[in-house]
Specification:
Blueprint lengths: L1 E4 L2 E9 L6 E8 L4 E4 L8 E11 L2 E9 L5 E7 L4 E3 L8 E12 L2 E10 L5 E9 L5 E6 L3 E2 L6 E6 L7 E7 L12 E6 L4 E4 L10 E8 L8 E3 L7 E5 L4 E6 L3 E2 L3 E2 L1 E6 L7 E7 L12 E6 L4 E4 L3 E2 L4 E9 L8 E3 L7 E5 L4 E6 L11 E6 L7 E7 L12 E6 L5 E3 L9 E9 L8 E3 L7 E4 L1
Length: 458
């Protein structure tokens, strides 16, 4: 009899059936309240009997004895797996009578029995020992290292447990990125020897891209242990390699006058060989939220950390402009951007300051006409007017009402004429010319008494 607790005992033996000389095995189990018979195997045609039993736990027992058919007496061994008794192979010397008398279950998968064998020829008895070693089925659990940023190392640890002094190897495989079924070629493989139950490490690996990776670990098995593995996506076997948090800093060019060029420069840092591109967008005056259509856009390719200038933009309208810059990220690097109104991303375009150079007609006798010509230059797509005034002799400061005035409309940088005027008396006259300016251009003028602006009537 063998008891694993006060409420779990197993007893074995034999009984005659129907008053005959035929013996059959008997197994009874105690559950703490009563004994009950459990069916067992009887391979012999004449006699089957149990002499000994041993249990490792309530679900693992071994019983031994002998069986007799038409030939020699042979050893008998049966195993209990928690639900039924089944025959187990027992070798026996040829031409002998053999029985097993006692058994010891040291583990679920390992039993040792002793008995005796008697030679048919000499009658000599010899001690017999047999070992039953079922292949254990160890468990294999995998624990991945925690998430790491791109550029860091990942690893896994496999724990082999429940084996019978396992040997062999554990093979680690790492799949990814984003191979949820572990069906592609692994990006990393390592094999480590096993010597007993315990934890075994894969060694480190540095992933080339940032995504989700999955470990598997497979124990090879050996003569006493079945193979075991942790499947794809098993709990604890997933590791996330995060993309690097790139930083994008930008600096716009300084203030310019209308008609000049502006640009933006983005500095990309903190990445791992970043690729793709940076897109620059420029928004016009009054668009403080950068929600209207951009007035200019530029996209430049990216190859690593560094500074990347936009293409230049020529601006003809005065006002305040706002840049934005966007890096979309790639497999290894997160996206980064500089938003509307960011520090250093505002550029002011001032009005252009044109020049106005005027030249009066030469001296003429009384009764002839005089005129003035003003040349406008340096204006940015000018509109507005030029006003010519002519002041009478003796008005050296041009403070009295002019004796002649005219206004012409302008639409470009060019020379414009006042038109003719016939003075009524002799003397020295003085012309002035003044450009009105417009939203993108400052006013300009030729002052009273400027060189070339006097005309003499004789």
């Amino acid at each position: 009899m063998s008891c694993v607790s006060a409420n779990a005992c197993t007893a074995v033996g034999a009984e005659n059936t129907s008053g005959s000389l035929v013996l059959v095995t008997v197994v009874e189990r105690w559950d703490g309240t009563s004994w009950s018979i459990e069916p067992s195997q009887n391979p012999g045609t004449a006699q089957d009997a149990f002499y000994g039993v041993s249990c490792a736990n309530v679900g693992a027992c071994g019983a031994v004895g002998y069986q007799l058919g038409s030939g020699d007496q042979e050893p008998l061994a049966e195993g209990w797996d928690g639900s039924a008794w089944s025959l187990q192979s027992t070798p026996a010397p040829a031409n002998s009578r053999t029985s097993l008398a006692s058994v010891s279950c040291l583990a679920v998968s390992w039993r040792q029995a002793i008995g005796v064998t008697q030679s048919d020829a000499s009658g000599a008895q010899t001690p017999l020992a047999e070992v039953y070693a079922a292949a254990a089925t160890p468990s294999d659990s995998t624990l991945a290292s925690g998430g790491v940023p791109l550029g860091g190392q990942v690893s896994a640890t496999a724990t082999v447990s429940g084996g019978q002094s396992p040997s062999g190897t554990v093979t680690f495989r790492l799949y990814g990125p984003n191979d949820a079924s572990c069906s592609t070629v692994p990006v990393f493989t390592s094999t480590v020897p096993v010597s007993g139950d315990g934890s075994y490490g894969s060694g480190g690996f540095t992933p080339a891209t940032g995504e989700t990776y999955r470990w598997t670990a497979t124990y090879s098995g050996d003569q006493s242990n079945n193979p075991a593995s942790s499947g794809c996506g098993a709990k604890g076997g997933t590791v996330i390699v995060s993309r690097l948090g790139t930083t994008l800093g930008t600096t716009a060019s300084g203030t310019i006058a209308a008609g000049g060029q502006v640009s933006d420069t983005a500095s990309l840092s903190g990445g791992l060989s970043p690729s793709r591109w940076i897109r620059f967008r420029l928004y016009g005056p009054g668009d403080t939220t950068c929600s209207a259509a951009q007035v200019f856009t530029s996209r430049v390719p990216v190859s690593g950390d560094g500074s990347y200038p936009s293409a230049p933009a020529t601006l003809t309208m005065a006002g305040t402009y706002r840049w934005t810059a966007e890096y979309p990220g790639d497999l290894n690097n997160n996206a980064a951007s500089e938003g509307c109104g960011a520090t250093g991303e505002i550029v002011t375009v001032t009005k252009a300051t044109p020049a106005l150079d005027s030249t009066a007609s030469g001296s003429v006798p009384l009764g002839r006409h005089v005129y003035d010509v003003a040349a406008l230059s340096g204006a940015e797509k000018p509109t507005g007017t030029i006003t010519f005034n002519l002041y009478a002799p003796g008005d050296s400061t041009c403070t009295h009402p002019p004796v002649f005035t005219t206004t012409v409309t302008i639409n470009r940088n060019a020379s414009y004429s006042s038109g003719p005027f016939k003075p009524a008396k002799a003397g020295t006259y003085r012309f002035t010319a003044a450009y009105s300016g417009d939203p993108n251009n400052n006013p300009a003028s030729e002052a009273c008494g400027a060189t070339g602006e006097q005309v003499t009537i004789t």
